[in-house]
Structures are given as C-alpha cells and as structure tokens.
Amino acid sequence: MTTSIFTACQPRQDILDGTISEADFAARLGSVISGVGSPDYVDPARFFSNTHPTAGLRTLIGEVMRRLSGKGDGSATFRLDTSFGGGKTHGLIALVHAARWGSAHGNELRSFVGDDALDAVDASVAAFDGEAADPTNGRLMGDGIRAFTPWGEIAYQLGGPEGYETVRKSDEARRAPGSSTLGEVLGDGPCLILLDELGEYLRKCPDALGRDQLAAFLKALFTAVEGRGNAAVVFTLAVRHDGKATDAFARENEEIARIIGELESVSGRKATILNPTSDDETAAVLRTRLFERVEVPGVTVDAYATLWNDNRDRIDAGHQGADARDAIETSYPFHPDLLDTLTGKTSTLADFQRVRGMLRILAKTVAKVWADRPDDDGLIHTHHIDLGDEGIRREFTTRLNQLQYDSAILNDIDGKSGRPALAATIDEEKFSGLLPYTSYIARTVFVHTLAFNNDLRGLTPAHLRYSILSPQADLSFVAAAETAFIQGSAYLDDRPTAPLRFNAEANLTQIIAREERGVEADALRTELDSRIKDIFTTNSGSFETISFPAGAFDVPDDVGDGKPRLVLVHHQALDIGNNVEEVPDLIAAIYQRKGQDGVGLRQLRNNLVFLAADERNIKRMTDAISRHLALQELRRPDRIGELAEHQQSQVVELARRSEADIAVAIQQCYRHLFYPSRTALGGGPVTLDLATIDQTSASERPGSGQTQIVRQLSDIGKLKKPEDQSDQPSYIRDRTPLKRSGQITSADLRAEFRRDPALPMHVGDDPFRKLVLKGIADGVFVYRRETMVAGQGDPAPSIVIDDASMVFTSEYARDHGIFPRPTPTSSGGDDNTSSGGSKPDEHGEGTMEIAGEEKKQTAGTGTATSTGGGSSSSASDGETFMGEGVLKDALTTVFQKARSAKVGTVSRLSITPFEISHFYMLLAVVESIPGATRRATASIEFETADASIITMTIEGTVGDAKLTREYVEPQLRAATERNVSTAIELTFADGLTLDGDEPEKIIERLTKFGTAAAFVEVTAEG
User: According to the UniProt entry, which residue ranges have a biased composition of type Basic and acidic residues (predicted)?
Assistant: First the structure.
C-alpha cells in the first residue's frame, strides 16, 4: 500500500490554476534591478519563500555578504560557473535582494546565511545583463541617457546621471576606463557589481575592438574591486570544466573564459568559483517552487523499495536497499527515474535550461496529474508526462526544438481527438478498465529518447519496467503492452541492437501495416472481387468470363459470343487444397445442369472451363488487396503530408507496384483449372479433369489472367486457337455423328466441339474452318453448300457454318455420287462444262442458331441485388443482414457483415434455396444445428402433362416437410410448367453468439454434404 500523493502533497495554487506565466520561469536580472517584473522575483519576501536554500546558494550569499561587510578575507571576485540553466540567474537575483534589503528581510535571509553576514545591508548594486545590452544604439537608462557599454550602464546605476558623466567619454568611445575611474564610480560604501550574459554582449560588439575593450574593462574592474574591502564582483560563465561551452554563444563564452584565465594568470588572483545548485539538490529546488506542502510517507518509500527488491531480476532499478529508500525520499514526490532522465538526458539538449526547463515541464505535469487523478498515485512517474496535453507536448517539441517528433507523438503516443494514437488503441482493446499500460510505455520511451548523445537516447526493457512499476502496476501487463506496442509502432527504432527509442521518421512498413489493419472487410471484399473479375475478363480474350456464379442458373447453355466460357468460382464459395480426388459439387452441378431450377441437362458442356482458388494462396491475395487499399489511403492529400518527404515518394512508388502485386497474387491463387475431358477426375461420373497452373506460369503477364489459362489448355491439347495446327480430321470424323451417318451440317459439326468433352475447345470459328479445309485437302471430308461441292484436289472453298452447309465423309460422298463428280457425257458440239467441276461459290460466314436456347434467369429472391449485398453500415436491435449466392459464400458474408456492424448475437437465420433439390438437401442437415427451433415453408405450383394445375403449401416442422420429397420431386421433373418458392428458418431462443466460432460450425454443417445456392438473412437479436 502507498499513501496517495494527493494526500501527502499540496501544489501551489498558481500551479493548479495554470496561472504561472513564462516570466515566472525565466528570471531576468534586469527586471529585478529596475523593480519591474514578476512579483515572485521582484518582491524579496516572495522570492526567498519560493527559493530552496541549497548549499551552493547559501555559500554564495554568505561569501558575498561577508565581503560586502568587510569581513571577507578571500577573493573579491566570484564566478558562477554552472551548466546552462543551472540556477545562476536565480543566484544573482538572491544576491541583489540580500545586498539591497538585508536589513528589512533578515528573517527570510537567516535560512540562507548566518547573522555575521547580515551586517552589510543597503549596499549599492549594479547589474549588467548582456542579453539586454545594445552596444550599437545604446540602451536607454533614464534621464535621456543611453549607455553603450557595461561600464556606462554600471556607472549610471550606481551614480545616476552624475555617475554616468564620470565615464561618458569612455562609454561613447566604447573604450574601457581605467581602474581609478571605476573606483570613483564604485564609491566608498558597500558595492556589488553583477555581470550576466557577457557572451551575448560580446556577440553584439561590432569588431575585435569590442572584445579587446571588454578584456581591459574586466581587468580594471577586478583591480578596482580588489582595492576596496567592501566591494565584490560576481559574474556568470556558461562553460564546462574543460573550458568548452555548448550553448548558442559557445564561441564567445569560451573567449571570455580565456580572457578571465589570462587576467587571473597576470594578477595571481583567482576568482572564487561557486555553483548555486548542484544536481543532488535539484529535487528540493523543484519541490519548493511547485508545492506548498510535501510530506514524504514512509509507507510509500517502503512499498517502492520492496517492489524494486522483489523484482530485481526483471527490472533495472539502479537503486536497492538503503540506497533505494534514499533515492525515493530525495526525489519525492517524483519517481527517481523522472528526475534522472530530465537531468541526465533531456538536459543535454542545447535548448534545455536545466532548472527552468524542468520547472516548466513539471509544473504542467503536476497540474495534469492533479486534474486526472491516475490510479497509480504513489509517485509522479515519467509516464505521467502526458504528451496528449498541448502545453506539455510543446515543451518538448517547440521549446526544445524537437518538432521532428510531432508525427511520432500523434501516430504512436498521444493522438488528436478522432484519431487515437496506437498506444490508446491498444489500451482500449487489451487493457480496458486497467492502467493505460501502452500509453505509459510510449510516453516513457519518448522522454528517454530526447538526448543529445546517441548513446543516451532510449532505454532497455528492464529499465522501462523499473520506470513504470508501481504497487498498482502488473509487470505481466507491462510486458504484454510492450510487445504489442513494439509490433505496431510506426516510429520505434526497429534495428535489432537498438534500445527502446523513437525515430523522428516513421518505419514505413509499420505505417502501412497499421493502415492495413484498418481496412474494412466490406471494402476489401468489394475491391478484391472487382480485381479478380477485371483480371480474367477481357473483350479481346479467348474466353467469355462468367464471374462468381451461385449455381447452374447463372451460366447460360448457349453459344453466346462464340467463345468458350470461363467460369470463375468465388474463393469463399470453393477453394482447392492439396488433394483433389473428385470434382467439387458446385462445379459438378454447374457443369451438368442448367436452368433456374437446376433440373435441365446442360448440352454445351465442352464450352465451359472452371477456375478455382488455391486455399494456400487466398490469404496472400487478400493481403495484397489490403496493402493496396492502405497505400491508396496514405496517398490521399490530407494523409501523405504527414509523412517525411522521401517516404511520400516511397508511398507513391509502392502504390504503383501494388497494382502488379495484386495481379500476381490473384493469378497465383486462381490456378486450379477444371476442364472437360473423357478422362474424368478420380474416375468419377463427371467428365472434368484438373490441371493446376504452376506458380511461375501464373505470375507471367500480371493482369492478363486468361493468358495462363490459354497456355495451360493449349499445352495439353485441349484448346485450339486460330493460329494453332488443325485437329486431325480422321479423329474428328470417328468421334462425331459423321462416323455413323456420313453427313452432318457444318453448324451441327461445329456444335459437337461445344458438346463433347473428348474434343478440343475452339477459340472462335477459325479452328473449325481450318479443320474442315484440312479434311477436304486430306480426302477425309467433302463440303457442299447449295450447288457448290468441294473435295480433295479442288480449290479451297470458303467454309460457312450454318444449317445449309453440309460436311460429308469421303466414303459417303463417293457412295452417293456427290464426289468425285460424275464424268459428263457429250452429245455432240462443244461441251461448255469443264472436267474439273464447277468453281465454288464465294459466301460470307454464316451464323449458327440453336433452337430451344434458354436465356439466363435471375436467381434468388428478396431485396439483395448482389452477392453479399443489402447490409447496413451499423447495427441496431433487430436489424437484418442479407446475402445471396453459393450457400457457403452467402453465409460467410452475412455473418461477416453482422460482426463488422458490432452485432454480438443473432436471433434468426433464414435460408431461401434457389432450387427445390437444395431445399430438401438442407432439410436433411438443419436438424444437426443445436439450440435452434427449425421451421420449413414452401409454396409449390406446377402444371402436369395433361394441363392440370396442382398447388400445395408446406408450413411446419422440418421433419414433416421431409416427408413430401418423394412425391414433389418426380412431379416437378415431369411438369411442363412450375413455380416454386421455399424457405428454412432457424430461431435461436438464447441467441447465436458471433464472438466465437459457432457461425463457422453452422456453415460447416450446412455445406458439408453438398453445394447449394440460396438467399440468406440473419437478424440481430432485439
């Protein structure tokens, strides 16, 4: 157990209200000198009450005050040599108040210095702030006076217009005065000179003269101060111990450090180096400024220390035992990792001022934590830095100049309203009602990412667990969230050896993968179906394509445009595995039957080939479509701008390539070809065999799907194209009615190639014409049209395919005196008839008409207009979802739509079969569906051969409906006219849940023993 920070701590009201201003964080020395600025800095009492008396600050005030009182026996020069933003300006302000108002604020000062240092009160104070200086135009001091140099400003501040007159000429000439002149300016009383931001002033000086004069001024000032026992100079210098600077004025600060070093070397006097705030006092400084009250609860310290010890094999705490307790007590109410990260990593960024920057970030974080009241409230952790808060995010992105991480924050960590980031999405899906573990992970990794040195960027998984672990957090959930976030993140560094850290540029693969997961099932199905149709359908192709038939009624049994028909079987209706021992029921039914009721026998069986999907490649095909849709989404103008410039070009290129990828994936999936053959697959009764197109061939010419089919059928001799060699006329003669009758019309002979599975399929009529011509040339056929007869040796005739043109066997033609022609006898005079026979007539190609041709009837009933159609975009109680087609496909579709609409359970499943045989087949299997009440209805009307009209109605149990089969089916087969509608309804009293695999089990039961086509409805539970 822990004591809540909300009980143990009370933030300052301005922190909670958010009324603390930028000026409250950014202390300005000049504002304090002039008495104009934030009361927190200008008012001595408020300043000291908000300031933690660090050891360094106490030493600084004590040393300087003793010097001003004449009791100091050390150096008169003090150097605040701290890291940038390490409290130096705060220390200077403390000196101003102590020197000016020590007598009036002795009580406040006693927390910082002893009584012996309070004697020097009401000292004169002058401060020079290089940030506010203007060496070119002069800074307005008052009384119409503009000062151009540090000596000019100091002289005016100490002596007003009269004091300025002492150095006017030196100021206007930008030449440093001597030490005696400066001594006059300092006067005889206690005097404190403060110099801040000299590096920035040096940057503003127009030439080397300014630098030289600054060096001369510092030498004269140090000399003048050393000559007085009650005067002191305090200056700041932002350089490291090695003399190197890292801030924006690094070159100038290093130059000043060199000047100071030379002065100390010449004079033999060293400035006293002081640090107002050391790293180990940072937490105390932050507590004092941010909180009115902080009580460190022992139970919290014990709880965390125990957690770290118990999980020491799983976390990288860096603190154990007594050290752990010390670390928690020192940093409280902040988690040690939070302060360690800000001081050890964030502070290495050039734009981060340590104390000020931490105050800004933590002030906003404390306010957010107190507003949100998270459940893990023992400490303020790194993960409580909520990057979803605009103010907090800007502290990192804008103020620290890390705008390159904006996309990472919005995409992975904390998104905008309406577009939740990855972390929030995972939390909603996996950790609803728990701590937002994934968001905690994302925030922690982000804060650890921001560092100047690459080896500081990021953290290990063990350190991550240490940072997040609390009495309320479960490490197993942390690990699960970590895994999910790594898998889905678009911006984590995914190099194998990299720590957990973000990159400014996204991992494009992950961006696409995440977009793929957002593709809706309906959109994917629609796009995929369209692509499959486009790839295998072409006006210039060898086949007329019939896409996704639900049954025999969708495939006409006529000549059509003269091309063979390619029947595309939908992959959800049928897929082919490794071992195919017999022709699938759906294909067999279409191949053998025709008509709306599926009763009639198909005549033109050799006019159909079937293409089915490979079950192993369906996922790859759907993945290709999903990726394409994701890329198209990313290409939208409002989305592509979120990516880096080089990624934008990659998305465009990947989207272009995805077109070919889709075609290849579809062609490699749709590669099982069932074709008419006298060698039936598996020795069964259905005269279809199977050819599987190899992967390499399937990949050729992406987008031209019929090419692979034509090649495969041509290679096995099943398909004849116009450019191919002719069939053997003798084989065709012996395989067709010509062998028996000796004669046949050209139309009927052409029709044999559409009927007989043992014959090749012809692409158009040219292969047939080539066959007849070869038969004539070889002496196998004789061709006659009206009075024109052509046999062996005659000029090649123009073959017309119609009922008026005849093809004879050569034997029949000879026996019946058709060919060779009888030799004419002469009765005197010239004979005008040539012995070579008459010249054949020239005729255009005819067209073939087949009597009794049936037109395709529209399958199904109800309001759905296409397979899978009729659904609505969102579910409500009692809403119905509809689909039609092959039963397996239709059932899959409606359950998929119901799930997409967030339906949990359905109360009703209705199946309306398109054929009476399917109705009775389903009656035999629906009884195996558990938990359902089953009802069957049918309306049957037919006309007998004797013109009697018989009407019957079925409405009742499935068992009773099954009893009618033996009477109904023979009657319908013999009927001259029929009109039938049937339906089976399953009602689930307790509801059929869609969360598990129950729908798939129902689909398996209903389609296990045969293939049906039907209209399907499911109704959401109301």
Answer: 839-857
